[in-house]
Write a structure and sequence with these properties.
Layout: H1 9-15, H2 18-21, E1 27-32, E2 40-48, E3 52-57, E4 74-82, E5 88-92, E6 94-96, E7 103-108, E8 114-122, E9 138-141, E10 149-150, E11 162-168, E12 174-177, E13 192-194, E14 198-199, H3 200-204, E15 208-211, E16 213-219, E17 227-233, H4 243-260, E18 268-274, E19 282-284, E20 288-293, H5 304-312, E21 320-322, H6 339-342, H7 344-356, H8 362-377, H9 387-392, H10 394-399, H11 406-409, H12 414-433, H13 440-448, E22 459-461, H14 463-473, H15 478-487, H16 495-499, E23 502-508, E24 520-522, E25 528-531, H17 536-540, E26 547-551, E27 554-555, H18 558-568, E28 575-581, E29 584-590, E30 597-603, H19 610-614
Parallel strand pairs: 1-11, 17-18, 18-20, 21-22
Antiparallel strand pairs: 1-2, 2-8, 3-7, 3-10, 4-5, 4-8, 6-7, 9-15, 11-13, 11-14, 12-15, 16-17, 19-20, 23-30, 24-25, 26-27, 26-28, 28-29
Length: 620
């Protein structure tokens, strides 16, 4: 079970070393990927040191990851002394910290001016702890998995540590990353790539993709700075991206520039790994994104929900970052109380951007919004856990893979959709209070465009900073407005939908998984994944993990259940179920006669259609 380790003060004092603080940087890092097809990465570091105690840290808390780094995948650690001429000498013993396993202690002998650190990292299987990142034809390199860095306590700043990276590729492989090659231009087919020195903070924020089959596509070529779509795949045919996807992504880049009125990167790279053999991670970074998706990703109608979302994080989450996530190093646990902005605002802007670029129609936007609204309209866990607590519990809730009574527990993704609805409310409130003259566009440009165009940097913010900026756009009691929504209980945040001129209704129509009719989610095989706490199915005795075998005496199928629900509309007879609960067969009855239902947003007559305004593409 995941838990946050609290590091006592005496431990921090133990790792502080005067000699260590005078360690000369930069350190050099070489990563050999030639065994990546066998799920092994080989790391070699040269660290300038001085004699005395030294603590090395394996990065634990990566600010855009959903769980601590997979320390168990780091193996084969050897540390050796080097003399003044760089000759490798005696092996040095190391000891893992007894309270924090991510820290290593070593004593540097007199006269030793640098050490060589070697270790391997296992990239894992597809569903392994480390999230598979390599196969026979490609690899994704997360730099935090192949580096140890000098750690002198909580005050260590990774932004001040300089690293000179080198990568050795398998023969015939190509690579792409936001890092700059030494020559300024990276040769995609070079087997050894030397990069310019970079801070450890920026290195970890700059993943690299590599593979046998590679393609680069320039996007929105008239926009400065430059943007590229870089793809590695298991098969050359998977590199064929429909022109419509290229055009849509280019249009998203143009609309983002107009929305934020700024860029905070030297260039931006959409790093896409197309493979059915590796994990499905989608990770945001400052000057790139790292989307690891199935081979048919660009032929999937939901491709943009990952790619555009992570692109917008360059502004919201990477440049402007909640202060609890702006930690000085990778050993300091993050505070996730700002996820309703980091993820919630990004989720809202992603949906808006998807419509502004023409990927979605207005009707598709409304359909997605209706789904979110209905989700929270039937989310009983909101009766006891507010959004602020969901934010605070992000890591433990993220780590839970059990969907049983998810509606009662809530999960680590609730701040995406609930935050989305809150930011719609903010947008609509600004528009209504200004009679349509101002909008969330103005807030975003002011808040995320702070300082104009910049290189990659972090500008932290607090709750009060958000309130102050909103008041610059339109004066209002924004502190009370946001506080109420962050701490509200037993109420779905649907005020923005009402303010936009719509209302949530349930109409007759196919219920895909039966949660809007029977108050439980049922798979195609009859397996019940969730039952709404206190609702009709719960009261009838249904529970998560049960499997429906028969409906009204007929073998279960989705069509059979739909027919039974439709037939029950004209009778008072309950629907009969035969269910299997871990081998125990029983009969249950559900006295439901409301028919199949699905959520719809219905226009409220004689009100402004703020949704239509919100979805209008921006222009200069």
């Amino acid at each position: 079970m995941f838990h946050v380790r609290l590091k006592p003060l005496f431990l921090s004092l133990l790792v502080v070393s005067a000699c260590q603080s005078r360690a000369q940087l930069p350190l050099s890092l070489s990563v050999d990927l030639r065994d990546a097809p066998r799920k092994l990465l080989h790391a070699t570091e040269i660290l300038p040191v001085q004699d005395g105690p030294l603590t090395l840290a394996f990065p634990e808390w990566i600010r855009n990851e959903h769980e601590p780094a997979p320390l168990t995948q780091q193996v084969g650690l050897f540390i050796k002394a080097r003399d003044g001429s760089g000759v490798v000498g005696q092996a040095l013993s190391w000891k893992r910290d007894s309270l924090d396993p991510y820290l290593y202690h070593v004593t540097i002998p007199n006269g030793v001016r640098s050490i060589e650190v070697r270790f391997d990292f296992i990239t894992s299987d597809k569903n392994g702890d480390a999230l598979a990142s390599s196969d026979a034809n490609l690899a994704v390199l997360d730099w935090n998995t192949v580096v140890l860095y000098p750690y002198s306590g909580p005050g260590t700043r990774v932004a001040n540590l300089t690293v000179t990276p080198t990568v050795i590729l398998p023969g015939g492989w190509h690579t792409a990353t936001a890092l700059k090659a030494v020559a300024g231009v990276m040769e995609p087919s070079s087997s050894v790539v030397n990069f310019q020195p970079v801070s450890l903070e920026q290195l970890v924020d700059s993943p690299m993709i590599s593979g046998r089959y590679f393609r680069e596509i320039a996007l929105a070529p008239e926009v400065s700075p430059r943007h590229y779509l870089d793809i590695v795949a298991d098969r050359p045919e998977d590199l064929e991206v429909p022109q419509a996807r290229v055009d849509e992504l280019s249009q998203a880049i143009r609309q983002a520039g107009l929305l934020f009125r700024s860029h905070h990167y030297d260039e931006y790279r959409f790093l896409i790994t197309l493979s059915n053999n590796i994990s499905g991670a989608a990770i945001d970074h400052h000057q790139s994104l790292d989307n690891r998706r199935p081979a048919n990703f660009f032929h999937n109608e939901k491709w943009q929900s990952y790619t555009i979302h992570d692109f917008l994080h360059s502004w919201n989450g990477k440049y402007r970052r909640p202060e609890g996530l702006a930690t000085p190093n990778f050993q300091t646990p993050v505070i996730t109380s700002g996820m309703w902005v980091y993820e919630g605002l990004t989720d809202y802007l992603t949906n808006v951007m998807t419509a502004r670029t023409g990927i979605w129609t207005k009707e598709e936007f409304l359909e997605a919004l209706a789904s979110k609204a209905a989700y929270y309209d039937r989310r009983p866990g909101m009766q006891w856990r507010d959004l602020d607590d969901v934010d605070t519990m992000a890591y433990p809730l993220w780590s839970s893979e059990d969907s049983s009574y998810d509606n009662w527990r809530l999960n680590g993704f609730d701040f995406y959709s609930e935050g989305n609805l809150i930011w719609l409310d903010v947008d609509v409130t600004i528009r209504n209070k200004s009679n349509g003259k101002k909008s969330l566009n103005d807030f975003v440009a002011l808040f995320h465009g702070l300082g104009g165009d910049t290189g990659p940097k972090v500008v932290p913010y607090s709750f009060n900073d958000i309130v102050a900026c909103l008041n610059q756009v339109v004066p209002n009691d924004w502190e009370g407005f946001l506080t109420e929504r962050l701490h509200a209980l037993s109420k779905a945040p649907l005020q923005g939908i009402a303010g936009a001129g719509y209302r949530l209704v349930y109409k007759e129509g196919a219920d895909k998984d039966f949660q809007y009719s029977l108050a439980m989610s049922i798979g195609a095989d009859g397996l019940i994944s969730d039952v709404l706490m206190g609702e009709i199915a719960y009261q009838a005795g249904f529970g998560p993990g049960m499997k429906i075998l028969a409906v009204n005496g007929q073998p279960f199928s989705r069509a059979t259940l739909q027919q039974a629900i439709d037939a029950a509309k004209t009778t008072t007879t309950p629907i009969d179920f035969k269910v299997d609960n871990t081998g125990v067969i029983s009969d249950l009855r559900l006295d439901y006669h409301g028919g199949q239902r699905h959520p719809v947003l219905e226009r409220v007559p004689n009100t402004p259609d703020r949704i239509a305004e919100i979805l209008q593409p921006m222009s200069r």
